[in-house]
Recover the amino acids of this structure.
């Protein structure tokens, strides 16, 4: 991050940029948002069993709309977006609700105003505090508002919904939320590091916690492959006990696809020794399910 | 590296991330409930869908398109339809017909057991994906987007602490958004078109910043011995329960009943310690191992093998 700050400042002078994102560095870091602290009536931990129901509406454009209040102001119409890693509010609404100071800088492109914070965000009976928001005038929201004739002022993203265990039911047009204790990762902190960080490939060790008795190879039939060919099955191993044979194609372990050697390790490492799981193989073109219990060992 | 270039990559990326909302080029129309088609046998079934969270806080699931793949798809309630990137479409021979907005997908299988048939997809590179992929920001290539026309077929349960979502198939066939027949009528609003400039801008930024490479996944090596813990407290120890034929452990002459003293110079008094000692061992790596057999303390070097 540090290396980017002078860059931001320098570019400010040139007037070429979108907005002075560098300013966010001067602000105290936003507290790591943690859930469990934000249920209605402060009923925090006890609420695990009591999901809060929030209705939503579908737009003709196939987007989900929820109504919410920011710092007691509103209600405002937001798009609920599982694909958005940040929560976003337009400039006018951010100012009105105090999520950003009125004198926050403006930029030419898309009205980007920087990072703000909603002290209180209410969605139905759900209440969250200290939700970081990005303030900008999203062109797609503007366009949608225009077409539909009613304003949409923001997008509810990861920084809000990752605080909850939730269900989305399109048929009932409602969501349910139960607060959980989950560290909501602050993208705004990690991102500059990732962008300016070393371009070295990270190595991730794939460590199965259990012994299966299998060796698998990379598939030879590319994208049409249905799994990894089993090269070896150790005599007396859990794999042999389960009836696997060399030449079988391993398709899935416990519902996870094994489409490469790394995939197979990935799937195997989620299974604890002694846990019995379904393994899907392809033998002579026929899909077969076997139950396998991996052993403790190395 | 020279960082003096007239682009604000961070601002661009933020704009891009914020814009996971995908707006179709088509104006919206009234939603329509389709006539009940042949009942899908998966209706009412719940599927555990494995997912991964990217470094950019995006949630990816894997899909096979017409039996080919797997490909990474972004779960995105902010997208109105199913989007498949042009590179993937080309790879699997999914060719959009000239003048047609939608491309038919016969089969669409999701990891976890969901099977969908006769879908319509838009073959396109939404600029959000183009830009993020160019910079390698998510840590994995995103090949497409699962939007409303796929997601609305399910009741989705999602707990960020779990490594799977649960999707229950509903008796509901959502319709694609209406698209005008004449391509000339499909112009997106000017602001949205302007937004599409972000993709190329990100690619340009990537030329200066460089692309973040995808992580390398390295399988661990295996020694081929089943273990068990014996004793407790101060007497807690790890004993070899079984030695697999032709395994590294077998070749080193290890036997059931031998007690592990150390692995790779780390002393081992618990199963957890044994796993930790193996954490960085790759197939082919030598591993020094000390065992206690009766009154004898033996030292051996074994070569880790492949597999699990």
């Amino acid at each position: 991050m540090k290396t980017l700050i002078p860059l931001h400042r320098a570019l400010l002078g040139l007037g070429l940029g979108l907005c002075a994102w560098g300013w966010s560095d001067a602000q105290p870091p936003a507290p790591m948002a943690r859930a469990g602290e934000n249920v209605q009536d402060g009923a925090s931990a006890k609420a695990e069993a009591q999901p809060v129901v929030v209705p939503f509406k579908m737009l003709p454009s196939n987007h989900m709309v929820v109504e919410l209040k920011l710092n007691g102001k509103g209600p405002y119409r937001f798009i609920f977006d599982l694909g958005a890693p940040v929560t976003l509010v337009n400039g006018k609404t951010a100012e009105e609700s105090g999520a950003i100071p009125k004198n926050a800088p403006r930029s030419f492109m898309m009205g980007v105003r920087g990072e703000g914070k909603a002290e209180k965000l209410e969605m139905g009976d759900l209440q969250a505090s200290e939700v970081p928001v990005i303030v900008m005038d999203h062109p797609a929201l503007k366009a949608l508002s225009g077409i539909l004739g009613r304003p949409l002022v923001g997008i509810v993203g990861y920084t809000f919904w990752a605080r909850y265990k939730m269900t989305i039911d399109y048929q009932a047009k409602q969501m349910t939320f139960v607060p959980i204790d989950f560290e909501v990762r602050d993208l705004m902190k990690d991102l500059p590091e990732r962008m300016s960080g070393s371009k070295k490939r990270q190595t991730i060790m794939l460590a199965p916690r259990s012994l299966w008795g299998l060796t698998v190879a990379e598939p030879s039939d590319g994208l049409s492959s249905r799994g990894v060919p089993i090269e070896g099955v150790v005599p007396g191993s859990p794999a042999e006990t389960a009836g696997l044979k060399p030449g079988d194609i391993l398709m899935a372990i416990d519902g996870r696809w094994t489409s490469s050697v790394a995939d197979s390790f990935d799937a195997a490492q989620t299974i604890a020794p002694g846990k019995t799981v379904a393994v899907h193989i392809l033998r002579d073109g026929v899909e077969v399910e076997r139950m396998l219990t991996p052993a403790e060992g190395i | 590296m020279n960082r003096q270039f007239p682009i604000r990559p961070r601002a661009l990326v933020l704009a891009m991330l914020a814009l996971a909302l995908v707006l179709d080029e088509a104006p919206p129309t009234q939603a329509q409930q389709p006539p009940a088609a042949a009942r899908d046998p998966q209706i009412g079934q719940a599927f555990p869908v494995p997912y991964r969270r990217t470094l950019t806080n995006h949630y990816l699931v894997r899909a096979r398109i017409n039996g080919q793949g797997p490909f990474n798809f972004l779960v995105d309630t902010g997208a109105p339809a199913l989007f498949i990137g042009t590179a993937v479409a080309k790879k699997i021979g999914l060719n959009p017909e000239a003048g047609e907005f939608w491309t038919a997908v016969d089969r669409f299988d999701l990891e976890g057991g969901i099977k969908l048939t006769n879908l319509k997809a838009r073959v396109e590179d939404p600029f959000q994906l183009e830009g993020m992929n160019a910079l390698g920001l998510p840590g994995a290539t995103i090949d497409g987007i699962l939007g409303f026309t796929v997601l609305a077929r399910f009741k989705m349960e999602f707990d960020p602490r779990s490594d799977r979502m649960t999707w229950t198939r509903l008796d509901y066939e959502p319709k694609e958004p209406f698209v005008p027949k004449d391509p000339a009528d499909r112009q997106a609003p000017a602001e949205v078109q302007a937004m599409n400039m972000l993709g190329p801008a990100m690619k340009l930024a990537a030329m200066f910043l460089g692309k973040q490479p995808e992580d390398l996944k390295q399988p661990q090596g295996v020694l081929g011995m089943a273990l068990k813990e014996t004793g407790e407290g101060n007497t807690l120890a790890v004993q070899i329960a079984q030695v697999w034929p032709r395994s590294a452990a077998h070749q080193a002459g290890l036997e059931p009943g031998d007690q592990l003293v150390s692995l790779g110079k780390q002393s081992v008094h618990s199963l957890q310690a044994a796993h930790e000692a193996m954490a960085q061992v790759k197939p082919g790596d030598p591993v020094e191992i000390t065992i206690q057999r009766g009154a004898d303390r033996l030292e051996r070097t074994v070569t880790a093998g492949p597999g699990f």
